[in-house]
């Protein structure tokens, strides 16, 4: 049926049996037989023939949409097959939101390449809604986003919960207090992540909820740069707990200060992928491998 579907798309796109037969290098009677065979297999008419003009039926339009999608999927398969034959390697595309790019993605890539050294991993970054669109349109095999996603076309697998933590220079004045509280952030000099990510949205929501007005000195789109500037600017920051590593804190002479209200501001990092049956066995295996990295031992 794939051959007939391809010919059917050419007829639709050429809007003419004559033009389509020329484009396909096929006689018009032979092309007509192919379309008739497709209609017979589907049990319905795909065109209304109005004089010399062809008009798609409702099912014809649905069939065309499916045929275009199938053709694109087939082309993607041939491309991947050619890449594998040429290099003996396979390509895997991960979409990562800006936050997960800096927190979860490096560890995941390291784990995947350790399991499958032949794997070529490509990463596409963007805001959460952009990653959802990339996965839905199959421009990425899966996505890692710092949010729970409800989409009828996608599966969403929770990986882990994250929350904000207060990070300070080791000799910051707040360290003189025995039990810092959320209101201590009011008026505090801070360096924050740039607007537009779930992390910054959650930060701003926190400030609004507790009516806090920190002294925002800078807004930067790099967690690493923020950490390096805290000592110089004598400022604090709020970062996702998942990002921080003991060595980072030691190298920059920083401390994490526990505040109860911050621990209650949680967000779930999730794995999203298309729930259709078209996923290759290899992609399904990698999805299982990623999910397994976060299962409780």
Automatic annotation (TrEMBL):
Gene3D superfamilies: 3.40.190.290, Winged helix-like DNA-binding domain superfamily/Winged helix DNA-binding domain (1.10.10.10)
UniProtKB keywords: DNA-binding, Transcription, Transcription regulation
Segments forming domain HTH lysR-type: 1-57
The name this protein goes by in its record: LysR family transcriptional regulator
Record lineage: Bacteria, Bacillati, Bacillota, Bacilli, Bacillales
Family in the record: Belongs to the LysR transcriptional regulatory family.
Pfam name, any one: LysR_substrate
A GO cellular component annotation in the UniProt record: cytosol
MF terms in GO: DNA binding; DNA-binding transcription factor activity
InterPro entries: HTH-type_LysR_regulators, LysR_HTH_N, LysR_subst-bd, WH-like_DNA-bd_sf, WH_DNA-bd_sf
């Amino acid at each position: 049926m794939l051959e007939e579907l391809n010919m059917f798309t050419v007829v639709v796109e050429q809007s003419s049996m004559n033009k389509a037969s020329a484009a396909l290098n096929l006689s018009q009677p032979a092309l007509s037989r192919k379309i008739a065979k497709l209609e017979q297999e589907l049990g319905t008419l795909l065109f209304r023939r109005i004089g010399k003009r062809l008009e798609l039926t409702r099912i014809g339009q649905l069939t065309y949409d499916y045929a275009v999608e199938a053709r694109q999927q087939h082309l993607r398969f041939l491309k991947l097959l050619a890449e594998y034959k040429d290099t003996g390697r396979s390509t895997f595309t991960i979409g990562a939101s800006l936050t997960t790019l800096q927190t979860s993605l490096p560890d995941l890539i390291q784990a995947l390449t350790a399991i499958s050294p032949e794997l070529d991993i490509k990463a596409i970054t963007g805001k959460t809604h952009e990653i959802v669109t990339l996965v839905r349109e199959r421009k990425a095999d899966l996505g890692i986003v710092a949010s729970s996603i409800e989409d009828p076309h996608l599966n969403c697998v929770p990986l882990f919960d994250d929350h904000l933590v207060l990070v300070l220079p080791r000799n910051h004045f707040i360290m003189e207090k025995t039990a810092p509280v959320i209101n201590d952030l009011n008026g505090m000099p801070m360096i924050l992540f740039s607007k537009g990510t779930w992390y910054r949205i959650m930060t701003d929501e926190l400030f609004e909820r507790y009516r806090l007005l920190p002294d925002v000195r800078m807004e930067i789109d790099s967690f690493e740069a923020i950490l390096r500037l805290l000592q110089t600017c004598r400022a604090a920051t709020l970062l996702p707990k998942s990002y921080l590593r003991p060595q980072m804190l030691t190298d920059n002479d920083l401390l994490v200060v526990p505040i109860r209200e911050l621990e209650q501001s949680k967000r779930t990092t999730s794995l999203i992928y298309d729930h259709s049956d078209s996923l290759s066995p290899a992609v399904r295996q990698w999805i299982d491998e990623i999910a397994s990295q976060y299962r409780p031992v």
